[in-house]
Write a structure and sequence with these properties.
heterodimer; A: mainly alpha; two-stranded antiparallel sheet; globular; B: alpha/beta; 14 helices; 5 strands; elongated
């Protein structure tokens, strides 16, 4: 049975067909979410959310774009949503400013007790440096770098996912790569073999 | 690389500024690596790289970054996560009601919230509204938002139970407020004084307590900065009530401070749209992948052009959304079916 047939059946609520599609794409989506979110825990939640959304809104997939592209688009939005919620939660719940008895404002030192997102993963130094640099890019730049240079999608596919023209995608990717290169300058030797 | 670039490189290679030649080459390296250059342009870079250590090192650096990106460790979904994914979908299947019914549920829930927000608009008295509409709502405690477009601004307040209607009541009233579709504008912007007049007649007890506080500006949170209610008599084709002299005030943090619940603020829809049943259904499909569990739609800014264009094509009365979204990272909207 072709993928299109599985898709058609899944759209009609066939759980077996849906399960088949999950098996096909779950690893790709998990890895994309992992790159975007920086830790496995959130990536797993995001992956589950992506497929729940897929199930709930399968009916709205008209087949105008590749199924994988549509799935990446959902994943992309789920991840950005999680990243922004996470930023807000952090802002809303952590106050780093306190006032001394003299009324002078000062910042509380924040100790970073846990491992950074990629310390626990089995990566070599270059890979870790790359992922940590990715974290410093804007969400938009991070997204296009992941889609292009890690997931290996074409400009056209990324254009569909981001809802922008291919030319715009190209220039965004170029700017993002330049920004990434700049961030990695200090670790340049790691990338020269 | 264009012939202009080639000439420039040649000229510079003539001894004028070799470092600038390298700069030009380095600017092309990513395209070179991607194989996007014409053969003759790529040949220029090939030749340069064989004789320039600096550029070759730069080239190797870029290749190293991309190679590393390509070889990152890959995670695998384990059995437990796979089971969770399917379980989540099965759960969604159990709770998902037939499409039409879901729409009604959404509509009734948000119509209730809309009534509260409409009430709060009056007390804020900061933007033009539509007095007949507002007064009617305030007097009757119900959600008949009709005949006008109200583009009114309010802070992100939690609905107050004493004002909100039960969902059933709202649902029953929906058909009554539907209007036949017409294609002409049926109102003009009203003066602020008219809103003030309406406000005077508002029984105080009917106004949610939270609305008396004018929200402070806070644009750093990336949250919606304004709530606009657009009652959409289908007869109305596009005019909104945004007044240049009274731009939408920026709100974000006040409701959080009042309610003490940041999540509530985050989940408040920022824009409310009323649509015909047909337009509503299309819009829901269009926005499906941006949907949140609370029934609103969170749209990343990068999608705004697409979404705006599509929604405008559907409804014709969402022209101001781009202005509202202009400086936002994202925005929440709630769709209502008339």
């Amino acid at each position: 049975m072709s993928e299109q047939e599985w898709i058609n059946r899944a759209k009609e609520g066939d759980m077996e067909a849906f399960s088949r599609l999950v098996e096909t794409y779950e690893n790709r989506i998990l890895n994309y979410c992992y790159r975007m979110l920086g830790n496995r825990f959130d990536a797993e939640d995001a992956t589950q959310e992506v497929f729940v959304k897929l199930y709930r809104f399968f009916g709205s997939y008209a087949g105008n774009s590749a199924f994988s592209t549509w799935l990446y688009k959902i994943a992309s939005n789920v991840c950005l949503d999680m990243l922004r919620k996470s930023k807000r939660t952090h802002k809303d719940t952590v106050s780093i400013h306190q006032y001394s008895t003299e009324g002078e404002e000062f910042a509380l030192p924040i100790e970073d007790s846990g491992p950074t997102p990629y310390q626990s993963a089995q990566m070599n130094e270059a890979q870790r440096a790359l992922m940590e640099a990715l974290e410093k890019l804007s969400e938009e730049q991070k997204k296009v770098i992941i889609l292009r240079d890690i997931e290996g999608l074409s400009y056209e596919e990324i254009a569909e996912i981001t809802g922008t023209a291919a030319g715009t995608v190209k220039s965004r990717i170029n700017r993002a790569r330049q920004a990434l290169k700049k961030l990695l300058e200090k670790d340049k030797e790691l990338f020269l073999n | 690389m264009t012939s202009k670039h080639q000439n420039e490189i040649s000229r510079r290679k003539g001894g004028v500024a070799v470092d600038q030649t390298c700069e030009t080459i380095q600017e092309q390296l990513l395209s070179y690596i991607d194989g996007e250059l014409r053969d003759e342009d790529a040949a220029v870079i090939d030749k340069h790289l064989t004789g320039c250590d600096v550029c070759r090192k730069e080239y190797e650096f870029l290749c190293g970054i991309l190679k590393t990106a390509n070889e990152l460790p890959v995670l695998k979904v384990d059995a437990s996560l796979h089971a969770r994914i399917l379980q989540g979908a099965e759960q969604a299947a159990k709770t998902q009601k037939p499409f039409r019914r879901t729409l009604w549920r959404t509509v009734s829930g948000f119509a209730t919230a809309a009534a509260v927000i409409a009430l709060s608009v009056v007390s804020l008295n900061s933007l033009p509204g539509h007095p007949e509409l507002l007064q009617e709502e305030l007097t009757d405690h119900q959600t008949e938002i009709n005949q006008t477009i109200d583009s009114a601004v309010t802070s992100n307040k939690e609905p107050t139970p004493s004002v909100a209607l039960p969902a059933e009541e709202t649902r029953e009233k929906q058909p009554a407020v539907s209007k036949p579709v017409q294609n002409e504008k049926t109102f003009a912007p009203v003066e602020n004084s008219a809103v003030a007049e309406a406000e005077q007649e508002v029984p105080e007890a009917h106004v949610p307590a939270t609305v008396s506080v004018m929200p402070e500006s806070d644009t750093t949170q990336g949250q919606p900065t304004a709530d606009a209610i657009i009652s959409n008599d289908p007869a109305i084709t596009g005019e909104t009530m945004v007044d240049d002299k009274n731009p939408m005030p920026e709100v974000a943090s006040e409701s959080r401070r009042i309610s003490g619940d940041a999540v509530t603020a985050v989940h408040e829809p920022a824009l409310h749209y009323y649509m015909t049943a047909e337009g509503y259904e299309e819009a829901v499909n269009l926005l499906a992948i941006f949907s949140q569990e609370d029934g609103t739609y969170l749209i990343p800014v990068e999608e705004k052009d697409n979404i705006c264009n599509s929604l405008q094509a559907l409804s014709g009365y969402l022209r101001h959304i781009e202005d509202v979204l202009e400086n936002e990272e994202q925005i929440r909207i709630a769709l209502y079916m008339e």
